[in-house]
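Notes to self after the Tuesday call (sharing in case useful).
The group wants a holo model before anyone commits to mutagenesis around the pocket. I volunteered. Ligand is S-adenosylmethionine. Logging inputs and output together so the record is complete.
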Amino acid sequence: MSDPSVISRRMSEIGIWKKISSKRVPLSFSLEITARCNNNCRHCYINLPAGDTKAKGNEISVDVIGRIADEAVELGSLWVLISGGEPLLRKDFSEIYISLKKKGLVPTVFTNACLITKEHIEIFNKYPPKNLEVTVYGASEETYEKVTRQPGSYKAFVRGLDLLLENDIKVRLKAMALKSNLHEMDEIARFCRERTKDFFRFDPILHMRYDFDPVRNEEIRSERLSPQQIVELERADPDRAQEMEELCDKFILPDPIKNDKNYLFGCASGIHSFVVGYDGVYRLCSSLWHPDCLYDLKTGTLAEAWNDFTPKILRMTSDKEEYHKSCGTCPIINLCLWCPAHTHLETGQMDERVDYFCKVAHERAKALRKAVANK
Amino acid sequence: MEINVNLDSAYIPSDDVVAREIEGELIIVPLAAGIGDMEDELFTLNETGSAIWDLLKTQKKLRNVIEQLSEDFEAPADEIEKDVIGFVEELLKRGMLVEVAQD
Ligand SMILES: C[S@@+](CC[C@H](N)C(=O)[O-])C[C@H]1O[C@@H](n2cnc3c(N)ncnc32)[C@H](O)[C@@H]1O
Ligand code: SF4
Ligand code: SF4
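Result:
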């Protein structure tokens, strides 16, 4: 008998990553437990009003979530992301959270922190999350509430965040760069870094809404930064600029990608992850709303969705010659927000090019080539 | 904290952890606070550790666990005893096992 040992490892280091690299195992999944939110952010792809009774009525119960999570555990899931809308808006959030923990899942929670209560703190203290990720929409009341369109939300956010930090709950702060808060990005970054030293990131690209609401989509468009503004922000962040330069070879491939069959999907969705919406609808990833790609878990099983339904989607192809010449083989796709899901939200098709994404990607590539050449 | 491992006790997985087997690997997931030193932490057992863990789960006295392992691994019980006691001590220290005293 060799020596028995217990090895403590950071999550990223456990051996299963290597074991599953060539296999389909859903190591992580997301639960969007509600689409409702206490805020009404101008750029939001999902939010419905907090009091939307129809949306509330369609939310899957703790029991259904439990059944889906049991099946996920059976399939090998380890990590779960609880998001929304605003997950803390659900009165049964704590019950959902604890039940997922007790199944041996490791949860991360995405929240705006406005609704944090003492009860949440007690639960996060007793059953720690992997992370709590809080989005910071502004560093001043004026800007924050210009984005959230909810009077009083800045005070609620600061109160909630302070409560989390005072109680040593592990929080990560992040920002969304928008037209409405661009003038304050330096302050937002400082606000975040003062509170959580080891982590800050911002996301500068917006995609369209899940419900295709044309008025709301117009609002999202009006919040989009120009490609130049995006690149300027990214170059101004030394960590991000350096990381991009180090990975330059991955971002700008020397040749077009080989894709003779014209496959649509090339990411990890449906290979190592999946998403369940508030109404129990299974999707390969959060943004993939094409009607052919939805599976209702209220009437079917996760095993069926994962083992039978998903492989068919992963084999979907495009018959467009144009797709083959552009996004289907694009050597700078890793700098682009383009994917079949985002383009479907934008154009109603899964194989169209999106002009805005394309311009952002090319602007990024131009800046990156220049930076690397200057080194 | 002084830890005394008693061969006439059973040591079973604590309610503060959940053991998961994913792709043949035994992973111990902390449920409550205070199991790991870092938040971002999981534990894996090597093959021998996993074999011991599986036997501990059956709530047998440690003495019987050692006997069983000695048969399974075809090794003398006194050699195995040392390893098993060290292993159980470590898991007790980390709060992953609890002692169930036997009469
Ligand atoms: C939908 S929210 C849910 C969690 C929580 N309510 C929050 O705001 O953090 C998840 C993240 O998506 C971001 N987001 C919202 N609308 C977006 C869009 N149109 N494109 C990209 N990200 C968006 C939010 O800013 C937030 O960081
Ligand atoms: S707080 Fe989050 S879910 Fe709510 S409206 Fe803003 S981005 Fe959307
Ligand atoms: S939108 Fe343009 S940059 Fe993006 S993947 Fe398609 S061709 Fe490439």
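Two things stood out.
The mean pLDDT of chain A is 95.
The domain at 15-225+267-316 of chain A is CATH 3.20.20.70 (TIM Barrel).
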